[in-house]
């Protein structure tokens, strides 16, 4: 009959533990605990007669301390060493006619790829369409885009017009810059997010336009994105207060490898002011330099530059940009120069007749020759040696 008090005591203890657990809530593990490192078993209680002493696990004589640093001297002689640092380069190539239309059905054998004027063996070749990841980088400063001004209206027309040409599966982000760079909407295929971001382009704040900083920040943010990607720059091309210089901006854009499609603003307005004598020599030089900067950024990144004077040119420009970004030949190769020197290597793409090695002659359906242009990035930066 002595077992009854003990049973009651055990039942009371279980009930108390259950109530305490209900008050504390579910027991959760901390974030530092991992599957690879299980928790240590608690030490047995010496006062508990039912607790059996667990035998100690025998020490593994083969388990040693993992070295924190690799030592090349530990490699036995005669053991083969394999290197996996070979560089593979992928180049997106768009072949367009004089109207900006993509020229399809060009065989792999007609492409000649040069790296620093050295022919390379093209190993990969593919053609097709793919969803795009696009960043709209829009200049919106009080220098030109005052409320209800001509430049303000043209900026909105270009931004809204291009968004309407996108496909549902395309991702787009809206980035506006004046003295600062602001992400109005991040990458999304929800067009409601994009239009809400464009609705914020109403009243400009600062009178500065830091073009270099905005371009480099956006390009570096996009350089690790997989698939087809591009930047649509809607800008006057004038930089006023950037931290980066022009040369550093060019190098950073080349390293990022994101094509830039430049859309120059205020072309008609500039011609009217120039003809009427309201634009001085310094302003003319500023705008000419701005146009050359946008052309350089577009060319060296593998994009295109447009400078429309009339609103009627916008649809054709958007179509050309869409075809150049979406329809592309993708060429891949392993460079013959595998040095890890961190230097910039120039890439040149040519269309040739493999039998004669002469430039390829492209004709239309009626047999008339077609003038074409090849859009591709200007090069890449080789990896640096691992220290």
Explain what the structure shows.
It is built from eight helices and 14 strands. By secondary structure, the protein is an alpha/beta fold. Among the domains are: 74 residues, no CATH class; 195 residues, Rossmann fold (3-Layer(aba) Sandwich), CATH 3.40.50.410. The strands form three sheets. The protein has a six-stranded mixed beta sheet, with helices on both faces. It is globular. The N terminus is likely disordered.
CATH class of the domain at 132-326: Alpha Beta
Strand percentage: 15-25%
The CATH topology annotation of the domain at 132-326 reads as Rossmann fold
Q: What Rg, in angstroms, do the CA atoms define?
A: 32 Å
**Number of separate strands:** 14
Individual helix count: 8
Helix content: 25-40%
Structural class: alpha/beta
Please give a quick description of this structure.
Helix content is 28%, strand content 21%. The chain is globular and about 65 Å long. By secondary structure, the chain is α/β, with parallel strands linked by helices.
Key terms:
387 residues, alpha/beta, Rossmann fold, six-stranded mixed sheet, four-stranded antiparallel sheet
Give the helix/strand layout.
Layout: H1 3-24, E1 89-97, E2 111-115, E3 118-120, E4 122-128, E5 132-139, H2 150-163, E6 171-177, E7 181-188, H3 191-198, H4 211-222, E8 228-235, H5 246-256, E9 260-264, H6 267-275, H7 281-301, E10 305-306, H8 314-326, E11 328-333, E12 344-351, E13 372-375, E14 379-381
Parallel strand pairs: 5-6, 5-8, 8-9, 9-10
Antiparallel strand pairs: 1-11, 1-13, 2-3, 2-12, 4-11, 6-7, 12-14
Helix pairs in contact: 2-3, 4-5, 5-7
């Amino acid at each position: 009959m002595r077992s009854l008090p003990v049973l009651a005591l055990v039942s009371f203890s279980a009930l108390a533990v259950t109530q305490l657990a209900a008050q504390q809530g579910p027991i959760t593990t901390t974030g530092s605990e991992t599957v690879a490192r299980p928790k240590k078993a608690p030490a047995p209680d010496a006062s508990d007669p039912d607790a059996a002493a667990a035998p100690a696990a025998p020490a593994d004589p083969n388990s040693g301390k993992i070295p924190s640093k690799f030592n090349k001297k530990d490699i036995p002689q005669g053991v083969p060493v394999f290197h996996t640092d070979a560089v593979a380069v992928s180049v997106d190539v768009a072949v367009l006619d004089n109207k900006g239309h993509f020229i399809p059905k060009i065989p792999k054998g007609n492409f000649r790829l040069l790296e620093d004027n050295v022919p390379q063996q093209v190993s990969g070749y593919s053609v097709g369409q793919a969803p795009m990841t696009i960043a709209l980088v829009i200049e919106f400063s009080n220098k030109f885009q005052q409320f209800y001004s001509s430049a303000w209206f043209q900026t909105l027309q270009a931004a809204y017009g291009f968004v309407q040409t996108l496909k549902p599966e395309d991702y787009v982000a809206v980035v506006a810059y004046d003295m600062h760079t602001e992400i109005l909407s991040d990458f999304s295929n929800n067009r409601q997010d994009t239009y809400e971001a464009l609705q914020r382009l109403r009243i400009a704040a600062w009178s500065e336009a830091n073009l270099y900083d905005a371009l480099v920040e956006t390009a570096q943010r996009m350089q690790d994105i997989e698939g087809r990607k591009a930047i649509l720059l809607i800008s006057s091309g004038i930089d006023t207060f950037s931290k980066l210089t022009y040369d550093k901006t060019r190098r950073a854009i080349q390293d990022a490898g994101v094509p830039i499609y430049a859309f120059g603003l205020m072309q008609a307005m500039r011609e009217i002011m120039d003809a009427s004598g309201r634009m001085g020599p310094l302003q003319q030089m500023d705008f000419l330099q701005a146009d050359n900067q946008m052309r350089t950024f577009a060319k060296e990144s593998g994009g295109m530059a447009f400078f429309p004077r009339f609103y009627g040119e916008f649809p054709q420009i958007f179509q050309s940009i869409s075809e150049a970004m979406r329809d592309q030949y993708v060429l891949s190769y392993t460079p013959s120069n595998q040095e890890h020197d961190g230097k910039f290597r120039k890439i040149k793409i040519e269309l040739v007749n493999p039998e004669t090695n002469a430039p390829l002659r492209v004709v239309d359906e009626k047999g008339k020759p077609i003038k074409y242009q090849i859009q591709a990035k200007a090069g890449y930066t080789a990896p640096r040696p691992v220290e």
